[in-house]
Each structure stands twice: as structure tokens, then as C-alpha cells.
Design brief:
alpha+beta, seven-stranded mixed β-sheet, 40% helix, globular, disordered N terminus
Length: 937
């Protein structure tokens, strides 16, 4: 896989690789910073650097990240995709695994390809990642042997090179969308010095078919050497023993006698006014202004960091000003705004403001962004603005610091590699907060304005315009429009901030009328007098993490049968105000609190709200939910903003084959129009009056069940629920449900053809077979295993053998809401010319599974990672949140939670063969998603 690099880190060893006496100098290049003392750095005699860190988040897991300092930046003009192709070859035959069975052995050890074993090629390096569940010294040794195997023992079989060229080609073609083309046009303006960041697929693929095994081997040998390698192990391991294992695996790797290939420094090119225009069906109307500040230092200095923090705060204040205008000004030309910052070492820092504009309003939107980015250069920032921005930033930084203290092994390993790549020091979380607070607490409005001005006066902005229609034909028109706006006067703006107000409590705290403890699961179940139910589990899995859900018992099945649910999405309900507070007041009160405001989904039989909180923000989350369901205002003054945001989302609804399929599948697979999505024709009529009519009765009366899992005090969480959701008026006990037939998976027949308007050369092939529901956990488990076996066979036949696709995806459902509803299937993205091959392969595999069933070896290989993951999941807050969700309304949920691991272990090959014959012996639903008339050639 190849993507643009964001951040990275690394370390090294001394002559005693597992007991570092002092931090090597290459770790502490960033002056004045002290590395996290929990990390053991080392460097082997051959030059390989490494870092080892003990972490029990999660318990029993070790994460290995292995970085080789070669990416697209190191490729010569005649070596396009060499680094990427070498990464793919690493998973094939090597000296220690001559049969190419390393992946099979890793799967048998409990690692799943993709989820636990992966590789990524970026501009600045190639990183191989492994997550080892239930880690043992033997499993770690296997992982290290795999990494060492391709480091100096890749075999580069000519036939395998040809197959992987097909896979790389499919990956590149499949990743090309309208959005990537628009992003590439902006990158070309931001990084004129770095053409490998904005190469087109045609440029990348031009010479792919001519690459030979000998050329790849030479490229590999030039760059894959110990002194370009950095190996990180973070997890539930002993650092000393891990250091010995690293030395045993890699000490014999010989460093070449020649020097490392050197990259020439890339000087910053002076910028001139520039613009890009990308107009295609499927693009959201968007506008971005980006500026670059030259930053020639390879290593961050305290002065550079200081200026960056202040400039970023200035940009955030401008974003906040625009957000307030969006929320308070009807028919503003933009509907949303966002801020992005990035840094390319030794080149520049980049600051971007992006906005979605209303149809046909690009010129007005451009003038608005020009005016508001210019305003601080003329009038600076006000004291109230700065005070609020500093307060919110420090609150957010403190919250991030608390979350960082409980980072997982994967997050730690990724952060260490990222810091190493950026030549920064990986510091303690508290230090990150301290650095920000030291700068902001001493800053004045004038300081922030000066740092902001230093960015915006350095270079002219790059302007990127994208959309589906009515855009200017030439970038010159855009540049001229910006110049006209820039010469114009600044309109007056009221910069007065909305007063932050706290949401009210619904009433007197609710009374607990029932409570019991589920001993074997460590769960407390509570019912309040108003009928609200609460499941709560304290864990010590991750410090400061609290996960929450609120299920309101009335989803799609509560809506009138036979009608499409035309109304603003529930995730936008807050825009209409809550409890008498308009959206600006609401957001001002919630700013920088760790509260989820729009994580809402309309499910089959529930409206589900999700929160990712900390112990301090739990009560704020529950108070918000109590008001969202108890006192939504449905303010019609926000109708226009909702229409603009929905229209922006729908512009890209059919932008790719996958997007077009995902949009149509719910209504089709349920045979029920209530699952149909909004359409462009619905936009102009969307109103909160529709929301009041459609969802008001559900929110006001349907049963509520809350689940809270994580680092919580149980009694405090019960009290917080009592004074919020427990204080609502009485609720009914059973979910709302309209009369009429239940959803039913359709009968198979002739292939259906849907269309997309993405790339004309890309298609999607989907096959799905009717299966059982998931009320009996054994059925859901058996069908989940079957679906994974189907995916594995497709992976072997369509990727490994023919190179026709990058990664087949599973398609699976085993409903616990609707009796008799389930399916097993797969999604395969291919070139349009390979549609017959994909359909034929699906039929062949299904026929084989129906007649012969899976093999015992397949069952063992597929279930080994599932069993390992199940044991780990039981120590994660996320798993418990899902397991306990709706557990009082559907008591069999607890039985499913208890029985999953034993049912998975008990599944036999004979049982699986019987289920395969039942599922795959029927005719599937087959869908081809083909390019439509608007697809791009």
C-alpha cells in the first residue's frame, strides 16, 4: 500500500543492545528535549537502529514496526513504483521462507493479513507493521525472522514479480478518484519541488510493465541495508529479552561497504500566485487557500516550535470566525470550514483553510475566505477571541495528554517511528502539553497576530477549486477573482463571541428502582423509575478512556412502512438548537470538552448515539444526550444550512463504484424503501419540520438504554445518568415498530447492473447468498468464518494468482434485530475488463464450497486469528461496549458475549461443510456496478 507520509519515529542500540547506558545522539537531535525514559534505544554493530518499549495496552500484544528509509523520494526517474513493488515482494518467497509461506505461518500464529500484517510505502520510507496477539518469544521470533527474511533474502521470483505488478496496478487504479485528482492538483501547487507527490496514475504506471526481477533486486540491495533500517517493538514484552531477540535475528546482516546513497537537498522555490480548478461529477464543491512558510531546518528548534504554535492558534481563530458566520448567517456562500496544518522537514510548513461552498457560489466563497484571512493582518485579534482560543486549545491539549497516557502499543510504535522520521524526540505526553502551555500562556494578541502575519505575508496563497459543475474553465479566472477581492475593502464584522451556556438538567434526578450485578461479567445493570436502563462496567484496560452508547428504541422499523424517510440526518439535529440554545451557544459551551455531538446513526431498530469520553466529560455527554432527545428545538432557521451540508455530501454519493454500491445496498438488501438514502431531489425541501414529524415521537417516547464502559467510578456514573437521562419523563418499555412485513433479503437471479460516475475503467462485482440470522450465536459465528474463507480464496485467486484486484472485501450480516435476516458475500473491485473473471471466480469458489466445503486446514487458518483476536477483544473497552449494548432490552446479548469464544473453538469442519452447502447451494444476488455516462475516461 502506498500513501503520503505524515509522521514517523525511531531508535538504536549500544554494544549491549538491550541495556542502554545513555540515549544515543541520533535520538536527541531536537535540542532541549528529553526522550521518554521508558524507551530502550539501541544500535547494532552493523548500523541497524531500534527501540523497545514495554506496554500492556492491550495486554498480551506486541506491535512491531520496521522502517526502511526508502520511498518514492529515493526513486530515480526510471524507477517509478520500485519501492512500492519491493514492499509487495517482501510478502513472498525469501531465503527463510522459500515456499512463500511466511504469511501462512503468521496466520497460524494468530495474525490476520491486513489487520495484523501490512506494509506501507510513502514518499519518505517503507514501513512494515505486525501486531502479534498473545505474544510469546516464539511468535516474536517468527515475526523477526519474517522481517529479516526479506531484508537480505528476498528471492524476487520472476513469475511472482509479474503477478505483483498486476496487484500494484490494481491498487493504483482503484485508489484513483475525483477526490484524489483534486487533492493532487493542490499538492502540485504546494510542493512544486517534490513532483513525486503529485504524479498521476498514468505517470506511475507508465513503466510498471517493463520492470524486471533483476532491476527490483538491484534496487532492493541498494536501499535495504542495516544502516537504513529502524526496528521498533512495543508491547507486553521484556525489553532485555526482546533486545537479545533483535540481536539474534539481525546481527548477522552484513552492512555493504559502500556509503549510503545521498539525497540532494531540495531548496524551497519562491511561490507565485497559483490556482487549480478540477470539475468532475462526484466532487463536492470545495475551496482551499493554502500558504507555505519556508522551514529549511531539518530538526525543529524551540523558536520554530514557538512560532508554529502561535501561527496555528491564529489560524484556528480565523476558522472559528468563519464557523460562527456559517452558523449565524443565513445563505452564507459557505456551509462548513476546516483547518489543516502540516510540515515537510527541510522545506516548509503549510497552513490551509478549506470550505464547502454552496452551488454556484465559488466566487463569493473565495471573496469571503480572502477577507477573513486578510482581516487579522489589518486588525489583529481581540482579547476575548484569544482568551477563548487559548482556553479551548489548552483544554484540548490536556485532554489529549490524558488520552496519550493510555496509548496502545500500536499508537506508541507508530508515534516512535513518526518522530524518528521527522527527526524529533518522542517525549512523554505531559511534555507535549507543557510545550504548548508554555507558549500560549505567555502569548499576547499581538504575538499571535505577528506569527500569523509571518505566515500569510511570506508567500501568496495557493487556491484550489473543485466541484461538480459551474466552475471557471481557467485557473486564471480564479486568480483574478482573488486579486479583485484582495484589493477590495474589508467589510465590517461583529467579532463579539457568543456567551457559552451550559445545557439544563431535565429535572429532579431519577430514582433507581432496580439494580443487580452480573457476577461473571463484572457488569452492573440499573433501571430508573422513568424506564431508562443502564449497563455499566468498570475496566482498567485504558486509563482515562470511557466509551458510551445510548440506544433509543425506534429505528428504521419505527417509520411508516412503504415511505422513504425524507428528513435531515439525525447527526445534524444539533444544528436546529437544543433546549433553547442556538447552535452557536451550544458549541461554545461544549468547545474543547471531550463530548461527541454528531455521532448518531439510524439503525434497523434503534437510533444509536456513541461517545468517546474521559471520566471528567462523561456527565457532559449524558447531559447533552438528555437534551438532544428531550428538548430538540427543530429550529427552521437552520434549514438552509442543513440543505447545504446534505447537498455537499450527496455530490460525492456515486463518485466511486464502492460509494454507489454502499448507497443503494441497504434498501435493496432489506427489500424495504425505508432504508433508502436521501437523493438530490430531496435537498431543497429538507426541513426540521420533517425531523419533528419523523423522529420527534421516537426521541420523545421510545425506550432508552445506555451502556458505559471504561475507567469510571460506577457510583458516580449511575448518579450522572440519574440526573440526566434518568430525569427525563417516563418512557415506554418496548421499541417502537410500525406494522407491516419485516425486511427480507432478496432472492437471487440474473445479475443486476448499477452505475457510478467515477473512473470509466473501474467496476465492482458483488455476490451475496441468503443466510441465517444471528439470534443463535453459533449461526453468526459459522457464517462469519465462511465469509472469511470466501474472502481468502478470492484473495488467493484474484490477487495472488491473477493480480486482478488489490483486496476483496467481505459482505456479511447476521441480524439480531430481524428474524431470518442474514447474508454471506464478497465485494471485488476490478477493471471493467476483468468483470467476467471476477464473476466466474466467485461462482467457482461458491460451487466448490457448496459441494466440497472448506478444508480442515482452511478452518484452522481462518479461526486462529479469530480466536487470538477474541481473547484480546475481551480486554478492550470497545468489545465490551458492543457486547453489553442493548443487553437489557435483548437479554440474549449477554449469552452471546459469554459464548463467543467457546462456540468459535467448538466449530468443526463438518458443521462448516453443512452450513456451506446450505448457504452456497442457493442462487446468489449478483450486482455489477459499472461506469455510467458521467464516468471519467
Amino acid at each position: 500500500m502506498r500513501r503520503l507520509w505524515v509522521v514517523a519515529v525511531a531508535f538504536a542500540v549500544t554494544s549491549v543492545p538491550y541495556a542502554v547506558a545513555q540515549t544515543p545522539s541520533w535520538v536527541a537531535e531536537e535540542r532541549g528535549e528529553t526522550p521518554d525514559p521508558a524507551i530502550h534505544y539501541g544500535e547494532l554493530a552493523n548500523g541497524l537502529r531500534y527501540a523497545v518499549m514495554r506496554s500492556a495496552e492491550p495486554k498480551g500484544v506486541a506491535v512491531v514496526e520496521y522502517r526502511i528509509a526508502v520511498g518514492t523520494a529515493q526513486q530515480a526517474a526510471n524507477e517509478k513504483e520500485f519501492a512500492h513493488l519491493v514492499e509487495h515482494m517482501a510478502f513472498g518467497a525469501t531465503t527463510p521462507f522459500p515456499q512463500g509461506d511466511a504469511i501462512a505461518q503468521l496466520q497460524s500464529a494468530g495474525l490476520q493479513l491486513g489487520a495484523d500484517v501490512n506494509g506501507t510505502t510513502t514518499a519518505r520510507g517503507t514501513v512494515y507493521s505486525l501486531s502479534i496477539p498473545q505474544v510469546t518469544s516464539e511468535k516474536l521470533a517468527l515475526a523477526l525472522r519474517f522481517l529479516r527474511g526479506f531484508s537480505d533474502g528476498a528471492l524476487f521470483d520472476a513469475n511472482e514479480v509479474e503477478r505483483q505488478k498486476g496487484v500494484v496496478g490494481a491498487e493504483i487504479a482503484g485508489g484513483e478518484t475525483q477526490a484524489t485528482r483534486a487533492a493532487r492538483a493542490l499538492r502540485q501547487q504546494l510542493y512544486p519541488e517534490l513532483p513525486y507527490l503529485w504524479e498521476t496514475p498514468a505517470q506511475r504506471l507508465a513503466s510498471l510493465h517493463t520492470i524486471t526481477a533483476d532491476q527490483l533486486r538491484a534496487f532492493h540491495d541498494r536501499w535495504y541495508r542495516p544502516d537504513t533500517a529502524f526496528l521498533v517493538v512495543v508491547g507486553d514484552v521484556d525489553p532485555a529479552e526482546t533486545g537479545k531477540a533483535l540481536e539474534a535475528a539481525f546481527a548477522s546482516w552484513k552492512r555493504p561497504s559502500g556509503p549510503l546513497p545521498a539525497l540532494k537537498p531540495v531548496p524551497f522555490q519562491p511561490r507565485t500566485p497559483s490556482a487549480s480548478v478540477v470539475q468532475e461529477a462526484g466532487l463536492t464543491d470545495s475551496l482551499t487557500l493554502s500558504v507555505a512558510k519556508p522551514q529549511p531546518d531539518a530538526v525543529l528548534t524551540p523558536a520554530t516550535r514557538h512560532d508554529t504554535i502561535l501561527a496555528t492558534l491564529g489560524m484556528a481563530i480565523v476558522r472559528d470566525r468563519l464557523e460562527r458566520l456559517v452558523l449565524t448567517t443565513p445563505q452564507l456562500p459557505i456551509a462548513s470550514v476546516s483547518l489543516q496544518t502540516s510540515r515537510w522537514p527541510e522545506l516548509a510548513e503549510f497552513y490551509s483553510l478549506s470550505a464547502n461552498f454552496r452551488a454556484g457560489k465559488w466566487q463569493e466563497a473565495l471573496a469571503l475566505l480572502e477577507e477573513e484571512t486578510r482581516r487579522p493582518l489589518v486588525t489583529g485579534f481581540t482579547v476575548p477571541e484569544v482568551d477563548r482560543a487559548v482556553t479551548n486549545t489548552l483544554k484540548g491539549a490536556r485532554s489529549a495528554s490524558l488520552r496519550a497516557a493510555a496509548r496502545t502499543s500500536a499508537e506508541l510504535a507508530n508515534g516512535i517511528v513518526g518522530a524518528y522520521t521527522d527527526r524529533q524526540v518522542f517525549v512523554l505526553p505531559e511534555r507535549n502539553f507543557q510545550r504548548i502551555s508554555e507558549v500560549l500562556n505567555a502569548a499576547s494578541p499581538a504575538d499571535i497576530a505577528a506569527a500569523y502575519s509571518a505566515v500569510w505575508r511570506e508567500t501568496p496563497p495557493a487556491i484550489a477549486l473543485a466541484g461538480a459543475e459551474a466552475l471557471p474553465a481557467s485557473p486564471t479566472v480564479v486568480r483574478d477573482a482573488y486579486a479583485v477581492a484582495h484589493r477590495g475593502p474589508l467589510p465590517a464584522r461583529d467579532l463579539t463571541l457568543a456567551v457559552a451556556k451550559q445545557l439544563p438538567l431535565p429535572g429532579p434526578a431519577g430514582k433507581v428502582v432496580e439494580r443487580h450485578h452480573v457476577d461473571d461479567l463484572g457488569v452492573d445493570q440499573v433501571r430508573f423509575a422513568n424506564g431508562v436502563r443502564l449497563n455499566i462496567k468498570h475496566t482498567d484496560f485504558r486509563a482515562n478512556e470511557v466509551l458510551t452508547t445510548m440506544r433509543v428504541g425506534g429505528g428504521v422499523l419505527a417509520l411508516p412502512h412503504g415511505e422513504r424517510p425524507v428528513a435531515p440526518p439525525l447527526a445534524m439535529l444539533y444544528l436546529g438548537g437544543v433546549a433553547g440554545l442556538n447552535v452557536e451557544q451550544l458549541l461554545a459551551g461544549l468547545r474543547a470538552t471531550q463530548v461527541s455531538i454528531d455521532s448518531v446513526a439510524l439503525g434497523t431498530n434503534v437510533v444509536q448515539y456513541r461517545g468517546q469520553n474521559n471520566p471528567a466529560s462523561l456527565s457532559d455527554q449524558l447531559r447533552l444526550w438528555a437534551n438532544l432527545v428531550g428538548k430538540p428545538d427543530f429550529d427552521p432557521r437552520a434549514d438552509g444550512l442543513v440543505q447545504a451540508r446534505v447537498e455537499a455530501a450527496l455530490e460525492k454519493a456515486d463518485a466511486t463504484a464502492v460509494a454507489a454500491f454502499s448507497r443503494r445496498w441497504p434498501a435493496f438488501s432489506n427489500s424495504d424503501s425505508r432504508f433508502a438514502p436521501l437523493d438530490v431531489a430531496d435537498v431543497s425541501g429538507l426541513s426540521f419540520a420533517q425531523s419533528r414529524r419523523r423522529f420527534g415521537p421516537i426521541l420523545a417516547d421510545a425506550p432508552i438504554e445506555v451502556t458505559i464502559v471504561g475507567d469510571i467510578d460506577v457510583e458516580k456514573a449511575i448518579a450522572a445518568t440519574a440526573e440526566t437521562l434518568g430525569a427525563l419523563p417516563p418512557r415506554r418499555s418496548q421499541p417502537l415498530r410500525d406494522t407491516g412485513p419485516d425486511p427480507k433479503f432478496p432472492t437471487g437471479g440474473e445479475p443486476l447492473v448499477w452505475t457510478h460516475h467515477g473512473d470509466a475503467g473501474r467496476a465492482l462485482v458483488v455476490s451475496a447468498w441468503r443466510a441465517r440470522d444471528g439470534f443463535d450465536p453459533n449461526d453468526g459465528i459459522a457464517q462469519g468464518v465462511l465469509d472469511e474463507i470466501l474472502r481468502n480464496r478470492l484473495f488467493n485467486d484474484l490477487r495472488q494468482t491473477s493480480g486482478a484486484t488489490y483486496s476483496p472485501a467481505p459482505l456479511f450480516a447476521a441480524s439480531t434485530s430481524v428474524r431470518g435476516f442474514g447474508y454471506v458475500g464478497a465485494i471485488v473491485e476490478v477493471a471493467t475488463s476483468d468483470v467476467p473473471l471476477a464473476e466466474r471466480t466467485l461462482r467457482t469458489i461458491a460451487s466448490s464450497l457448496s459441494e466440497l466445503g472448506p478444508t480442515a486446514e482452511e478452518l484452522a487458518r481462518v479461526t486462529a486469528p479469530m480466536k487470538a483476536r477474541a481473547a484480546l477483544d475481551a480486554r478492550s473497552n470497545g468489545w465490551w461496549l458492543n457486547a453489553l449494548d442493548w443487553a437489557q432490552t435483548q437479554p440474549d446479548a449477554l449469552a452471546r458475549a459469554r459464548g463467543y469464544q467457546s462456540a468459535l473453538a467448538a466449530l468443526s469442519v463438518d458443521q462448516l461443510k453443512a452450513r456451506a452447502a446450505e448457504v452456497f447451494g442457493t442462487q446468489p444476488v449478483t450486482i455489477r456496478v459499472m461506469p455510467g455516462p458521467a464516468a471519467k475516461p
